[in-house]
């Protein structure tokens, strides 16, 4: 096909590329700066680094000198794993029970299950702290799990609901007409088909828990310290370069996880829904 | 150890979604081993009727009886009704073999027996070479065969097919129609096939139930329905026909003398009752009309506009003197060229049997 390129086409393409470039710069730039800084030889969190080394990574993985960081990381991983596990179970059951219901009550429930994604998490963190205090609970990792559960399960709920709405109802009818019970249909048709959506949601929930600040801020204390809060504390007091090294490790781990998930379930395709 | 073919009775089935009735008091008896086509325009309630039989929709009133069991309270998975869905509904995450084995596995049939039955069904639908493929790697016709094999693998009492050929190419359709007919015979299945394609219904069904607005307008063999449509709706839905307005002028035993508005007088046999002076439509199929060059009793003048060769037939497009269009089909004499245009006389062919309908 013959097409003439007009000046307006060219300016459109130029503007589009500039915007895309700007977007990449804003998103990737800071990550790169942190990564590069984490390899500094200096004891100051300053960019550009005078020279490169793995000094701060060695420091970070030192058992005794970074013990408090390791504890916080352990707490964070434990809370994220338990909250993701429980949250996934709850969110999948919630999605299953309202996906094919057309009544207004189901839509209202859907909106309320999703509301933690929109409502200010900071206010929720404060509220949960006050509630637990009112009930006389002492801060513990279990309360952190409960707190995280509320803010991260909507991720699973949303992707599961999307998978369920895409699930062709005639598959379920087909299964029934072939003699399968509802449970058999769930196990062999529904579950395998929504599994990638559930996994993608669980992954997002896990990440959301790992770097949650607003809830952890209120619910953690010195005994139950969480990694992001600990990092903030280190920044405030000493401008510790290990903070950059922790960021480097987190970025690397999440990047690897993302690539694995994308291979397994097409994560990037599902994040949009 | 095959079950004898099971009869299916629908007794006064009625269903509606909110306003109006999608299925309106449908009563139908299907003999064991018979294939009945539900034929009707889109939206007339065919799918709803099928879904009631399958148990996916619960009717407002009426009953479904399969064999000697009233199945109204049975959920779909206990009705033993096989369904081939319009979009085939193959399980996308399973191979062809797993799809076919599914119903057997759900019933807890042993793995060995499953394998045996799957192999048998694959051979029956000539898909053995595709056993390990996923549905998305198959063409539409192949998916259709797998859907059929999957439904038949569990030996259902009744087979329901919802527009099974709608998504297929014209020439593939004929193959699959023959295939379905063959399997239905071979398995001695009572089957209901939904379609809006009258040719499909004519070629495949033992009986056709023509539906309109949720009701069955006529039930009969394809030939009965074609030759003796019971209502104007059925008449216009099945095949093409010409409607000529006229008035009953004479009554004789079983025969009515009809004076057409164009002046011709036709004696027409009909088992419907009319009185002298009743306004009627005489409906004639294109192949029941002929063109001639000379005037004769029963002929009326027309203007011959156009002739189209359609296979072995010639289809003439003619106009009455008042401008009304008629279609006349005649066998084409091989080797002759078309003569176009001019005045002619149109009349009934030998053995023609027009139908009479009351004209509102
Ligand atoms: N799930 C439904 N909800 C509301 N109306 C429906 C539903 N299914 C079908 N209908 C209506 O019922 C009528 C019959 O539909 P259907 O049985 O699908 O007809 P057909 O299969 O002959 O095209 C149509 O008017 C259609 O709009
Ligand atoms: Mg339909």
In CATH terms, what is the fold-level topology of the largest domain in chain B?
A: Rossmann fold
Strand content of chain A: under 5%
Largest β-sheet summary of chain B: 6 strands, mixed
Query: What class, by secondary structure content of chain A?
Result: mainly alpha
Number of strands of chain B: 20
Instruction: Tell me the CATH architecture of chain A.
Output: Orthogonal Bundle
Q: Topology of this structure?
A:
The complex is a heterodimer of chains A (273) and B (360).
Chain A (H helix, E strand, L loop, with lengths): L6 H32 L16 H6 L6 H32 L5 H11 L6 H14 L6 H26 L2 H9 L4 H29 L3 H6 L7 H12 L3 H24 L1 H5 L2
Helix pairs in contact in A: 1-11, 3-4, 3-6, 3-8, 3-10, 6-8, 7-8, 8-11
Chain B lengths: L7 E8 L7 E8 L4 E5 L6 H9 L6 E6 L2 E2 L10 E4 L11 H11 L4 H14 L15 H14 L4 E5 L7 H17 L3 E6 L2 H7 L2 E6 L2 E6 L1 H6 L4 H6 L4 E11 L2 E6 L4 E5 L9 E6 L4 E4 L7 E11 L2 E8 L4 E7 L11 E6 L6 E4 L2
Parallel strand pairs in B: 3-8, 3-9, 6-7, 7-8
Antiparallel strand pairs in B: 1-2, 1-4, 4-5, 9-10, 11-12, 11-14, 12-13, 14-20, 15-19, 16-17, 16-19, 17-18
Helix pairs in contact in B: 2-3, 2-4, 3-4, 4-5
The complex binds adenosine-5'-diphosphate (ADP) and magnesium ion.
The site of adenosine-5'-diphosphate has 10 residues of chain B, from helix 1.
